[in-house]
Design goal:
Blueprint (H helix, E strand, L loop, with lengths): L5 E2 L9 H10 L18 H18 L5 E6 L2 H13 L5 E6 L2 H10 L4 E7 L23 E4 L1 E2 L4 E2 L11 E4 L16 E5 L10 E6 L16 H6 L9 H17 L1 H22 L3 E2 L11 E6 L5 H10 L2 E2 L10 E4 L6 H18 L1
Parallel strand pairs: 1-13, 3-4, 3-5, 5-8, 8-9
Antiparallel strand pairs: 2-10, 6-7, 9-10, 11-12, 12-14
The protein binds pyridoxal-5'-phosphate.
The site of pyridoxal-5'-phosphate has 12 residues, from helix 3.
Amino acid sequence: MTTRAYNFCAGPAALPEEVLKQAQAELLDWQGRGLSVMEMSHRSDEFVAIAETAEQDLRDLMQVPDNYKVLFVQGGASQQFAQIPLNFLPEDGVADYVDTGIWSKKAIDEARRFGNINVAASARAQDYFAIPGQNDWQLSKGAAYLHYCTNETIGGLQFDWVPQTGDVPLITDMSSDILSRPVDVSQFGMIYAGAQKNIGPSGLVVVIVREDLLGRARSSCPTMLDYKVAADNGSMFNTPACFSWYLSGLVFKWLKAQGGVEAMARVNHEKQRRLYEYIDSSELYNNPVSRSARSWMNVPFTLADAALDKVFLSGAEERRLLNLKGHRSVGGMRASIYNAVPLEAIDALIDYMKAFEKEHG
Ligand SMILES: *Cc1c(COP(=O)(O)O)cnc(C)c1O
């Protein structure tokens, strides 16, 4: 018998057990066709149906308006950092970026290779523990777009509001909080997310882009990086990440069965509430992020004495609480509590943290 541990990995992250079981059941023989999804032509009726169903389910879950394209592309969220300016920033234009941590900073550094980037706001002055309010942002006149990251996966800093930029399209990296709570897609020019946090396996990026923004890519933009090419070809200009796409589709079905994004938001709210409440009440653990900007998905915390980190982690592993080690750049701990991490996992983590505090606090 296999026993699944509770997995708090930041990414690639936990997947719903039901989804893995279904993939396992279908692995050798998908729906009586005598082959696995990994072995199908991406042009076959079977795979095209898998792909279209996944897209429709995602559209339903996020209520994506009809004037948006949904793309399933590759290269990770990191490739989007280059792809965005290549598609939307004219060579003599300027784009606004908001710096709230490591991922938005990476997006800024990459975009700078392609043009004039204005950092309209930075959380650096607040040690990345709070998000500067929009009144303090220095927006450019006539910016091609504004880019920000809704949830900083490493710092555990999340927007609970949407910037207002008038006609300037908002482009946002939702890699680690897409589908965790409702969003109004119509407020965005483009949303993108690497799959391996809150969607499915790695190798796939979901892009939701407003149609009128397509067709603006620079002439030097590689064909494969032009969103219009992906859109015109149903994300099959070349061979897509078929298995990741299929598995993500199973996750979308699972999300629908859970009651959709609103239902996930209720559970996610409770998960983060219990964990932060315990951290705040304890003497041993600390999370420094200002309350209104605390992430629902990634909860970094430190122990009062870093010498206890190793002991904490090995005790956690003994209890089958996996991947709690913080990002190598910041240390400490981090519990990533995406959609597929159930409330029971949070309770098991808190039980362990309490017992550990009793022993070492
Ligand atoms: C993980 C992550 C990325 C990078 O994703 P890759 O698919 O590894 O390129 C970018 N942005 C955010 C917010 C992330 O969490």
